[in-house]
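ingest -> validate -> predict -> emit
validate: passed (alphabet ok, no gaps, 156 aa)
predict: started
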Amino acid sequence: MPLSKFFRPQALMLLVKITNSEHLRLAEALRNGESEVVVRLIGELLARSEPGLVMVAILLTQFRTWLWVKSAISNRIKNNTEIAQICHVGNPNRLYYLRQEVATMPIKSLIQAVTKLVDLEMAIKQGYADTNSILPFLLMITRLFQPVQALTLLLR
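emit:
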Protein backbone atom coordinates (compact mmCIF):
# COMPACT_ATOMS: atom_id res chain seq x y z
CA MET A 1 0.00 0.00 0.00
CA PRO A 2 1.49 3.41 -0.94
CA LEU A 3 2.57 5.77 1.81
CA SER A 4 0.36 8.48 0.33
CA LYS A 5 -2.63 6.58 1.75
CA PHE A 6 -1.34 7.26 5.27
CA PHE A 7 0.62 10.50 4.91
CA ARG A 8 0.28 13.65 2.91
CA PRO A 9 3.31 14.26 0.63
CA GLN A 10 3.97 17.61 2.36
CA ALA A 11 4.18 15.87 5.74
CA LEU A 12 6.66 13.34 4.35
CA MET A 13 8.81 16.12 2.93
CA LEU A 14 9.05 17.68 6.39
CA LEU A 15 10.13 14.35 7.87
CA VAL A 16 12.73 13.63 5.18
CA LYS A 17 14.23 17.04 4.73
CA ILE A 18 17.93 16.22 4.96
CA THR A 19 19.50 14.90 1.82
CA ASN A 20 23.02 14.61 0.48
CA SER A 21 22.47 17.92 -1.28
CA GLU A 22 22.41 19.66 2.12
CA HIS A 23 25.81 18.20 2.92
CA LEU A 24 27.15 19.03 -0.53
CA ARG A 25 26.04 22.65 -0.05
CA LEU A 26 28.02 22.56 3.20
CA ALA A 27 31.08 21.18 1.36
CA GLU A 28 30.73 23.93 -1.24
CA ALA A 29 30.54 26.60 1.47
CA LEU A 30 33.71 25.16 3.04
CA ARG A 31 35.43 25.14 -0.36
CA ASN A 32 34.47 28.78 -0.94
CA GLY A 33 35.59 29.89 2.54
CA GLU A 34 32.07 31.05 3.47
CA SER A 35 32.12 30.89 7.27
CA GLU A 36 28.66 32.42 7.74
CA VAL A 37 27.05 29.88 5.41
CA VAL A 38 28.87 27.03 7.18
CA VAL A 39 27.58 28.19 10.58
CA ARG A 40 24.02 28.46 9.24
CA LEU A 41 24.05 25.05 7.51
CA ILE A 42 25.59 23.26 10.50
CA GLY A 43 22.97 24.86 12.72
CA GLU A 44 20.19 23.65 10.42
CA LEU A 45 21.58 20.11 10.21
CA LEU A 46 22.08 19.85 13.97
CA ALA A 47 18.61 21.29 14.62
CA ARG A 48 17.25 18.39 12.56
CA SER A 49 19.27 15.91 14.65
CA GLU A 50 21.59 14.95 11.81
CA PRO A 51 24.26 12.63 13.25
CA GLY A 52 27.68 14.26 13.32
CA LEU A 53 29.41 11.18 11.99
CA VAL A 54 27.16 11.16 8.92
CA MET A 55 27.94 14.81 8.21
CA VAL A 56 31.67 14.26 8.55
CA ALA A 57 31.63 11.09 6.43
CA ILE A 58 29.86 12.83 3.55
CA LEU A 59 32.18 15.85 3.75
CA LEU A 60 35.21 13.57 3.88
CA THR A 61 34.06 11.70 0.78
CA GLN A 62 33.58 14.97 -1.12
CA PHE A 63 36.92 16.43 -0.06
CA ARG A 64 38.76 13.19 -0.86
CA THR A 65 37.21 13.21 -4.32
CA TRP A 66 38.32 16.81 -4.84
CA LEU A 67 41.82 15.92 -3.62
CA TRP A 68 42.09 12.90 -5.92
CA VAL A 69 40.86 14.89 -8.93
CA LYS A 70 43.22 17.78 -8.16
CA SER A 71 46.11 15.32 -7.75
CA ALA A 72 45.32 13.61 -11.04
CA ILE A 73 45.14 16.94 -12.85
CA SER A 74 48.39 18.08 -11.19
CA ASN A 75 50.02 14.88 -12.46
CA ARG A 76 48.95 15.84 -15.98
CA ILE A 77 46.42 13.07 -16.46
CA LYS A 78 44.09 14.45 -19.13
CA ASN A 79 41.75 11.58 -20.00
CA ASN A 80 38.46 11.91 -18.07
CA THR A 81 37.83 8.16 -18.13
CA GLU A 82 41.24 7.49 -16.61
CA ILE A 83 40.77 10.18 -13.96
CA ALA A 84 37.30 8.80 -13.17
CA GLN A 85 38.77 5.32 -12.63
CA ILE A 86 41.61 6.57 -10.45
CA CYS A 87 39.31 8.81 -8.40
CA HIS A 88 36.44 6.29 -8.13
CA VAL A 89 34.02 8.62 -9.89
CA GLY A 90 31.28 6.50 -11.44
CA ASN A 91 30.35 8.93 -14.20
CA PRO A 92 33.32 10.29 -16.22
CA ASN A 93 31.10 13.17 -17.42
CA ARG A 94 31.02 14.42 -13.82
CA LEU A 95 34.70 15.28 -14.25
CA TYR A 96 33.69 18.39 -16.21
CA TYR A 97 32.17 19.82 -13.01
CA LEU A 98 34.83 18.44 -10.68
CA ARG A 99 37.57 20.07 -12.77
CA GLN A 100 35.82 23.44 -12.41
CA GLU A 101 35.36 22.94 -8.66
CA VAL A 102 39.03 22.15 -7.99
CA ALA A 103 40.50 24.66 -10.45
CA THR A 104 41.11 27.34 -7.81
CA MET A 105 41.61 25.05 -4.82
CA PRO A 106 45.21 24.83 -3.58
CA ILE A 107 46.26 21.20 -3.20
CA LYS A 108 47.88 22.00 0.18
CA SER A 109 44.53 23.27 1.44
CA LEU A 110 42.81 20.12 0.23
CA ILE A 111 45.36 17.91 1.97
CA GLN A 112 44.95 19.85 5.21
CA ALA A 113 41.16 19.76 4.96
CA VAL A 114 41.11 15.98 4.42
CA THR A 115 43.51 15.55 7.34
CA LYS A 116 41.30 17.65 9.63
CA LEU A 117 38.17 15.74 8.55
CA VAL A 118 39.87 12.39 9.19
CA ASP A 119 40.96 13.64 12.63
CA LEU A 120 37.40 14.75 13.38
CA GLU A 121 35.95 11.45 12.17
CA MET A 122 38.36 9.49 14.38
CA ALA A 123 37.63 11.74 17.39
CA ILE A 124 33.89 11.20 16.98
CA LYS A 125 34.31 7.42 16.56
CA GLN A 126 36.54 7.19 19.63
CA GLY A 127 34.17 9.31 21.72
CA TYR A 128 36.54 12.27 22.11
CA ALA A 129 34.31 14.61 20.13
CA ASP A 130 30.59 15.14 19.76
CA THR A 131 28.37 17.20 17.49
CA ASN A 132 29.41 20.38 19.34
CA SER A 133 32.99 19.80 18.16
CA ILE A 134 32.07 19.81 14.48
CA LEU A 135 31.66 23.55 13.97
CA PRO A 136 35.14 24.58 15.21
CA PHE A 137 36.76 21.94 12.97
CA LEU A 138 34.77 23.09 9.97
CA LEU A 139 35.59 26.73 10.60
CA MET A 140 39.29 25.78 10.59
CA ILE A 141 38.71 24.17 7.18
CA THR A 142 36.86 27.24 5.95
CA ARG A 143 39.90 29.37 6.78
CA LEU A 144 42.04 27.16 4.54
CA PHE A 145 40.00 28.25 1.52
CA GLN A 146 39.61 31.93 2.25
CA PRO A 147 41.58 33.93 -0.32
CA VAL A 148 44.15 35.46 2.07
CA GLN A 149 44.86 32.14 3.80
CA ALA A 150 45.10 30.25 0.50
CA LEU A 151 47.59 32.81 -0.80
CA THR A 152 49.74 32.44 2.33
CA LEU A 153 49.77 28.66 1.89
CA LEU A 154 50.92 29.01 -1.70
CA LEU A 155 53.76 31.33 -0.69
CA ARG A 156 55.16 28.84 1.87
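The two ends are 62 Å apart (CA to CA).
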